[in-house]
Amino acid sequence: MKRLHLHLLSDSTGETLEMMAKAALAQFDDADIVRHFWPMVRSQQHLERIMGEIAAHPGLVIFTLVNPEIRHLLVERCSVLGLPAVSALDAVIVALQDQLGQEAKGRPGRQHLMDDAYFERVGAIHYTIAHDDGIGWEDWEDADIVLAGVSRTSKTPTSIYLANRGYKVANIPLVLESPPPPALFSLRRPLIVGLVTAPERLVQIRRNRLLTLNEATETDYVDREAVQRELKFARRMFADNGWPVIDVSRRSIEETAAAILRLYNERDADPAAREPGPKPI
To answer: CA 239, 241, 243 angle in degrees (round to 5)?
Structure first.
């Protein structure tokens, strides 16, 4: 069976693009597809870096880009490489027919069938809810992704968002006075990602949280120096274990999730990256 590298480029989180690609691929049985997902493509410099990967793994390029200059550059560069670049669902189906050597089956709504992927997504949601806030460390090895970070770094909402995308996610709060379970440091299957944010932003978020709970706002929980110590503790743990770090200071939940999935897909393509121990970030 012919293998097809499918490159998905979006100037946002790429959810719409992924849904379009899934809808089109549902028309083909047992297609050997290698997906490369490129969200948040908003500059020509970013696109140039991506083009190197596209050139190394030539295939079909599908995009949802609003900026006309970036769109034009992408189409132009793909043309030089002799690669198809399309931006609409109808064109996607035609291109897939050409690349895969199959006729589209023309079954409306086929992607919405209650197939294995549907039940896997439901299972991912159940798993994620059951492993929120450090609960259930005994079976963290079953997770796809483990998020670690100090309090109020968007671990739970990011976990739930990823679960709705079909990923089993556990998350653990890092507390300076209470080390995490040793099991965290021996995980092999899950991708462990550290979440951090700017101290000033974290203090403000925590103050707002305390105000909504009608609690005192003059505690170490919102003290700037104490917060800096917490973040330093977390960053040192991430560095010592070679875990990738994402700063959520200026990211939406969707943007954070997109960055995590990029890391997940990159690691999935490189089996050596699954080995435990420090790695360059």
So the answer is: 70
Instruction: Give the count of alpha carbons within 13 A of 55, CB side only.
Output: 11
Q: Give the tens place of pLDDT for each residue, 125-183.
A: 999 999 999 999 999 999 999 999 999 999 999 999 999 889 999 999 999 999 999 99
Please give the structure tokens belonging to residue 191. 């991708």
The domain that holds 194 is classified in CATH as 3.40.50
Q: Are residues 90 and 163 in the same domain?
A: no
User: Are 100 and 127 found together in one domain?
Assistant: no
The dihedrals phi and psi of 193, each to the nearest 5 degrees, come to -125, 135
The pLDDT tens digits of the residues spanning 230-244 come to 999 999 999 999 999
Residues paired with residue 147 on neighbouring β-strands, in sequence order: 171, 193
* Phi, psi (deg, nearest 5) at residue 275: -65, 135
Q: Which two tokens mark 11? A: 């100037």
* Assigned domain for 280 exists: no
Please tell me whether residues 9 and 140 are part of one structural domain: no
In the DSSP assignment, the letter for residue 29 is T
Give pTM, 2 decimals: 0.63
In this structure, the strands spanning 32-38 and 85-86 are: unpaired
Range of the domain at 92: 3-112
